[in-house]
Amino acid sequence: MDSEDSVYDLTRPDRWQGGVIFASPHSGCAYPDWFLAESRLDAQQLRSSEDAFVDRLIRRAPDHGAALLTARVPRSVVDLNRGPEEIDPLVVQGGMPPAMNPRIMAGLGVIPRVVSQGRSIHDRPMPRAEAESRLARFWHPYHRALSGLIDEAVGRFGGAVLIDMHSMPRDALAHLPRPRPDMVLGDRNGASAAPRISAAVAEAATAEGFRVRRNSPFAGAYVTATYGRPRDNIHVVQLELDRSLYMDEGRIEPRADFAQFEARFARVVERLARLRPDATDGAIAAE
Questions:
Q1: Widest CA span in the chain
Q2: 29 or 97: which carries more pLDDT confidence?
Q3: Residues 6+ apart with CB under 8 A from 67
Q4: What mean pLDDT comes out for the span 80-93?
Q5: What are the phi and psi torsion angles at 89 (to 5°)?
Q6: Pair 234, 157: CB distance under 8 Å
Q7: Residues 226-249: pLDDT tens digits?
């Protein structure tokens, strides 16, 4: 069985300031040799499903007193933002989820069938035992770490704020009127985070000149739905960044001005690290 440090990287701040956690479940790019050997796609094609470089954009979060959890396992191996029951019957022999949903039907279950542009990953369905082994090796360790961090934050600070970081293809916004948003904030229409927390996240981004849209076309998936419990003072906000702002989407390479974008977004990260789940007169702690 793979060790947990092959699944994710967990970086703790020297002093955790207030229960803020940054996570990136889709930026993993450590492709196992066995996976590359059995996939019908090459590594470059597989990488099209990554939230490439998002982990780099949030790497300074511990410097500002927040915990940081980033996946190493790639999304095309196991999708950490899906439930373990979201089994695609076209991927797993004899597999059938309790209920089909649009993600599974699109080939984006917990073990994905496709990457971007609908390109199939597998030549044939896998046995159910193989699927269960893959979840045990990758999915469960990540979620043990994430749920453990949230529980620890609640115990120490009375609550938790999870910023679940993602990226979106520029084409995902093509149907929207101009000017298009730079990022989409998802809180499941208020179900996963209190309004004061979501408002503070939006304000942290707009303070740096980013255009923010809420809950459309992305309102949040498994992580927001499962962990966001604002009545228990556990708040989860998903942030989707427009990839074209900092990377060449076709080549999956940072843009020449990546460092400038990283510095700009680092100021958003710094503001978000000051969020406080127990704040009553505003969600961000004073300097």
A1: 55
A2: 29
A3: 10, 11, 12, 13, 16, 20, 21, 22, 61, 149, 153
A4: 96
A5: -65, -15
A6: no
A7: 999 999 999 999 999 999 999 999
In angstroms, the Cα distances linking 247 to 24, 100, 235, 251 are 17, 34, 29, 8
Tokens 């059938």, located at residue: 96
Q: Classify residue 51 as exposed, middle or buried by CB count within 10 Å of its CB (0-12, 13-18, 19+).
A: buried
Q: Is the pTM of this model over 0.90?
A: yes
Please count the other Cβ atoms lying within 10 Å of the Cβ belonging to residue 70: 24
SS3 for 106-139, per residue? CCCCCCCCECHHHCECCCCCECHHHHHHHHHHHH
Task: Go through the domains of the chain in sequence order and give each one's CATH number.
Answer: 4-81+134-273 (3.40.630.40)
The mean pLDDT of 83-89, rounded to a whole number, is 96
C-alpha dist (Å) from residue 194 to 5, 7, 59, 93, 235: 33, 31, 26, 41, 7
- Rounded CA-CA distance 16/68 in Å is 11
Closest CA to 62 of 278, 273, 275: 273
pLDDT reported for residue 1: 38
* Amino acid, res. 148: G
Joined tokens for residue 105:
């039907």
Tell me, what's the pLDDT at 95? 83
Reported as a single tens digit per residue, the pLDDT across 38-49 is 999 999 999 999
Residue 175 near residue 216, CB atoms below 8 Å: no
Residues 6+ apart with CB under 8 A from 133: none
| 169-205 b/e (C-beta count within 10 Å ≥ 16 → b) | eeebbeeeeeeebbbbbbbbeeebbbebbbebbbebb
Predicted pLDDT at 280: 56
User: In degrees, to the nearest 5, what angle opens at C-alpha 148 toward C-alphas 162 and 81?
Assistant: 55
